[in-house]
Amino acid sequence: MALVDFAERQLTLKLVYYGPPLSGKTSNLRALYTKVDTLNRGRLMTLDTRDDRTLFFDLLPIFFRTSSFSFRIKVYTVPGQPVHEATRRVVLAGTDGVVFVADSSPDQQDANRLAWQNLVANLHAFALDRVPIVVQYNKRDLPDAIPADECDKFGQPSMTLACAKAGEGVLPTFFALVERAWAHLERDLQLGAKLGIDAQTFRKQLAEHVGATEANG
Ligand SMILES: Nc1nc2c(ncn2[C@@H]2O[C@H](COP(=O)(O)OP(=O)(O)OP(=O)(O)O)[C@@H](O)[C@H]2O)c(=O)[nH]1
Ligand SMILES: [Mg+2]
């Protein structure tokens, strides 16, 4: 759950990138890191084995300040390999939103489904069933990528398309999730009224600090 510190006038959001093995979760975070202004990001922490598989998790802290409040967004990835189930649960605990990074390769559609079922079960175990989820189909550059209109949206209202390796679609996915996470918290905690910031102001500030010029790229 989001941390609101009224004394320090600070809001901390936790977001998690989830999905099947090798779908591009770490690649999303790496691209995000390069797109966020140096002043608004901390160190990108990744823990890989030699073959690039995430061993524990990755973390990118993003922060920005408005005239009245400061925001911290902690962006995590989980490791996709089945063996890391315990780690996935630890990372998912208390999340305010999830990007589900699906693989566009036709032969990974079963892996997408399995990872989705795993996500739903783990969210349910934490009573986080209502947390906002953005489905991203990554690796759109694959010559045999499944057509966009055949992608399983897993019951979500919309999805984004990306080529994380090239940094494409990474910011729109991130913005979509942050916006939905804000709307969710607004409903639950009346954040806007308490912080004196409406959704539009929050979005504008976020875009200004986190690469507004690339919001479509
Ligand atoms: N063709 C293509 N390959 C990609 C893309 N994004 C990532 N990859 C490749 O997919 C492989 C896995 O990427 P990662 O970002 O490490 O995947 P991950 O989801 O973090 O993997 P785990 O942490 O092991 O679950 C790497 O070889 C990437 O270069 C993309 O948009 N297109
Ligand atoms: Mg990874």
What do these coordinates show?
With 217 residues, this protein is α/β, with parallel strands linked by helices. It has a single domain, classed as 3-Layer(aba) Sandwich (Rossmann fold), CATH 3.40.50.300. Helix content is 33%, strand content 20%. The longest helix has 20 residues. The protein is globular. The two termini are 30 Å apart. The relative contact order is 0.19. The C terminus is likely disordered. The chain binds guanosine-5'-triphosphate and magnesium ion. The site of guanosine-5'-triphosphate has 22 residues, from α1.
Supply the key terms:
binds magnesium ion; binds guanosine-5'-triphosphate; Rossmann fold; alpha/beta; 20% strand; single chain; 217 residues; 6 helices
Ranges with pLDDT <50 over ≥5 residues? 213-217
Number of helices: 6
How much helical structure, as a percent, in the residues?
25-40%
For this structure, what is the CATH homologous superfamily? Answer: P-loop containing nucleotide triphosphate hydrolases
Content of β-strand: 15-25%
- Terminal CA distance: 30 Å
| CATH-assigned fold name | Rossmann fold
CATH class: Alpha Beta
**Given the helix and strand composition, which structural class is it?**
alpha/beta
Domain module tally: 1
Globular, elongated, flat, extended or rod-shaped: what is the shape? globular
Number of strands: 7
Question: So what's the oligomer here?
Answer: single chain
CA radius of gyration is 17 Å
Report the sheet with the most strands, covering strand number, pairing sense and barrel closure.
7 strands, mixed
Strand and helix order: EEHEEHEHEEHHH
- Specify the CATH architecture: 3-Layer(aba) Sandwich
Bound molecules: guanosine-5'-triphosphate, magnesium ion
